[in-house]
What does this fold into?
Amino acid sequence: MPVSADNVAHKSAPRPRWLKVRLPAGADYEDVRALVGDLQLHTVCQSARCPNLGECWNQRTATFMIMGEACTRSCGFCAVRSEQPGPLDAGEPERVAQAVSRLKLRYAVLTSVTRDDLPDGGAAHFAATVRRLRAHRPDCQVEVLIPDFQGDARALATVVAEHPDVLNHNVETVPRLYSDVRPQAAYDRSLELLRRAKELNLEQRTKSGIMVGIGESLDEVHATMRDLRGVGCDILTIGQYLRPSLLHLPVARYYEPAEFEALRTFGGEIGFLHVEAGPLVRSSYHAAEQCSVLLSADAAQSAIWNPQL
It folds into this structure.
């Protein structure tokens, strides 16, 4: 039966019809759920209460969240719990790789909680996970959705050195709202991370994401999109903010589907290779398809320099 994507844990006012999803069910969903439990893994699908969990798991894909379930930051929008995390699990990279192999994924997305308690923010753990994954599935493309590593350039370089197919880091919202939405982060620091990733590897494809409906203006959204293109960001995701609980920031308004389409069009006009925009869009939603767009763009660019391609 349809339920509100805003929050299944408490009653809330009716949501627009385009924010209705079905309760997760089905054989493939159950297989993925059992696999994640068997290998003692975490997924952002569960921890962040993603409204697309049922759809993605029924397609036998998931976004693996490494380094535990506890985050050292307390963002105003996020359902992941904020508390002091435990030590890193040295066996986790291998178990993630086993899950990717058993699911026979051709595209895997790795993300994490923010670990400001670690000297490198967990960069080496990201790198180890990518290496183990590729050892099991050499043909699998890998996207990493990373924290800002507190601006540590060496930590970023550790991840970029593994040549992820896509490096994703979300700015989440417009700069004016950072004190409420991301109080322990910095807008300029996130932009610098994306810029530096390109500096470290000119061929590195980058991606970012923003939420709308928290109180930003359209002009602010456009300005943020321009900022991201200004640091060479290739892919952008734009989705509706949905309040995880009554303890989180309220929704200021719900964007109409036509407004998301207008943002997608604007993103193309200012140079993004792909913009995924819609009410239920999240960072890893349709990630494999987005990477395919990048590969096509790379081929087209190569053709400019090599007419024989």
The chain has one domain: 2-305.
